[in-house]
């Protein structure tokens, strides 16, 4: 497929139109595998399940599709050739595992479509704007994710890690995922502008012909986690012709509104938002910690804040601020996604019948 710049620029707007204006992403993937009993205390984190429990990977994709997701993100966040080789896999096996992450997501989409066709799903015959279309986004986690110590939340790689180091690190993985059948590449939890630049240059140098989005993580609502400016990071994404959406993921919900406003200042591309639950990750113990002070801002079921209430409040604000793709990251669940999907449906029927 030759992805001319015109086609790239309309890819996401065409998709959003098919979805009725806004799209629903899935929620936390690795943390959902954990909720189902997977032990991710491993340098491969969620990618371990591509080897040990592919059926669970498919099950979590299906749960998010059932919850209303229009975009599912593959289990390749921490799947790298280097990481698999370190575990004793051959290079060919490592590449096959990367492809497998996309194959499982595509398989889940087929099962879901099949179920929709056979079942009595309301949206099949209503003639209303359908939320039916589903894209498979191939996840690319940062170099910091591969380090497996939570470095994607610091973005401090040290002076020895240069632009070339990062491009070389990601090059083959990106090529494989781009040719795997995925609809787009999700460069996620990007911690600094060096890595954003590496992604942009790689997409260009390798003439990657599927679209991509860049999402950044922040821990103060002002800058990305490394301290680099969100304006500079979003500008790098904005200038890259393959990038069809720019946004934020794995960041506490309380920071999202301000970050959307900042991103909107430097791009007119669609803004994609998928916050985590508001808890903080401890990379050493691989545990999530909730600060008592921030308790009321989380979406944890134990906070007493139901997902529906959260979704109704935030989706309205985040839409007003300019975002159009919404989902969840670590420790959000299919219930969060169901609530987001419902909140968006309520909004679009309110507009349709106004
Ligand atoms: C987004 S973080 C929770 C991913 C896990 C991290 N790279 C680790 O391996 O500990
Ligand atoms: N897509 C990844 C992002 C981790 S920050 C996941 O949900 O596990
Ligand atoms: Zn996350």
From TrEMBL:
InterPro entries: BHMT-like, HCY_dom, HCY_dom_sf, Hcy_S-methyltransferase. Its EC number is 2.1.1.10. Pfam families: S-methyl_trans. It comes from the Eukaryota. The keyword Ribonucleoprotein does not apply. Keywords: Metal-binding, Methyltransferase, Transferase, Zinc. Binds 1 zinc ion per subunit. PROSITE patterns: HCY (PS50970). The keyword Methyltransferase applies. GO terms for biological process: methionine biosynthetic process; methylation; S-methylmethionine cycle. Residues 11-344 form the Hcy-binding domain. GO terms for molecular function: S-adenosylmethionine-homocysteine S-methyltransferase activity; zinc ion binding. Zn(2+) binds at residues 250, 329-330. Its cofactor is Zn(2+). It is an enzyme of class 2 (transferase). This is Putative homocysteine S-methyltransferase. It comes from Rosa chinensis.
